[in-house]
Structure formats: structure tokens, C-alpha cells
Design a protein that fits this description.
Blueprint (H helix, E strand, L loop, with lengths): L7 H11 L4 H13 L5 H12 L4 H9 L2 H33 L1
Length: 101
């Protein structure tokens, strides 16, 4: 895995979102938040090993963000997002009509 030097803003954001947890806790939170499941033993051990070996939390977070498992769910999530945007546009039109006639 390639380590990228994080910016202080990225470091602060990861710290803000994931707090002061150990590497196993951090990886577990990534599995829960990004993959919407509990970590499998092999995956947990791999990512904790990467972190213990010097990988930054930011680089591991980025790796999770581009995981095949995440990519396979994107079409459904994108469709849901598009539907929400369309619903908001309708609500906006209704509000504009109420305000401006």
C-alpha cells in the first residue's frame, strides 16, 4: 500500500470523525461506516498490520473509500441520491410557487 503524506486538515478530519481509538478500533469503525458490516478477521488483521507498519489512517481511509465492495454499492447509492435531489427540487418549486405565486 502506498503511503501519502496527509495534510493537517485531513489529519484533523480523521481525528474528529474517529477519535482516539486504537488501530483495531479505527479499522472496525471503517468497516462499519464505509462497508456497513463488521470486519472479517483476515481483513481486520491486514489493515491493523498496515497501520502498525506505518501506514497513515488517512491512506487506509482512502483505500476503504475506493474498495471494490464500496464500488459495487455505488449505483444504488447514486440512484438514491438522485431521487433525493429530484424530490428536493420538487419541494423547492412548490415553495417558490407559494412565495412568489
Amino acid at each position: 500500500m502506498t503511503n501519502k503524506t496527509p495534510t493537517s486538515a485531513n489529519t484533523n478530519k480523521v481525528q474528529e470523525n474517529y477519535g482516539n481509538v486504537d488501530n483495531a478500533g479505527f479499522v472496525t469503525l471503517l468497516y462499519q461506516d464505509i462497508l456497513d458490516r463488521e470486519p472479517d478477521t483476515d481483513g481486520l488483521n491486514y489493515w491493523v498490520g498496515e497501520l502498525n507498519g506505518g501506514a497513515t489512517r488517512e491512506s487506509v481511509l482512502m483505500s476503504f473509500s475506493y474498495a471494490v465492495e464500496v464500488e459495487s454499492h455505488r449505483p444504488d447509492k447514486l440512484r438514491d441520491l438522485e431521487n433525493r435531489v429530484a424530490a428536493l427540487e420538487v419541494e423547492l418549486r412548490v415553495l417558490r410557487n407559494k412565495i412568489f405565486g
